[in-house]
Amino acid sequence: MNNEEVGKFLQLHDIKPSHHRIRVFQYLVDNKNHPTVDGIYRELKAEIPTLSKTTLYNTLSLFVDKKIVSLITIEENEARYDADTSLHGHFKCNRCGKVYDIRLNISSFNFAELDNFEVAESQIYFQGLCPPCQKINQG
After folding, report:
1. Burial 126-138 (b: 16+ CB within 10 A, else e)
2. What is the model's pTM?
């Protein structure tokens, strides 16, 4: 997505497309690394000197409220953001800290036990060692 497409996308979701909002969303789309607020702030601060952490928190909160970004909390003290709002899981490597998207075969899940529930959110997390870190441990 280019800036114009991002602006239109934000408008479709009733979000005023300010420069800060466009750049934050564009960053999330371009960087599928499930960044934290600190990571996003470090990356965008040089490009947008007027960006404050308060603005960033407010922008991300708005995106989550409008359901165009998912808030993922793999660990209690670590909030990360994901522009991929499709149903998928995440895997966090305990060694390098990288978070991977895990595609799920939803058709193989039995959701019958949820028939009488209203599901507002679903999150599936795995933790362990990613393939590159497994090789390091073996070598």
Report:
1. eeeebeebeeeee
2. 0.85
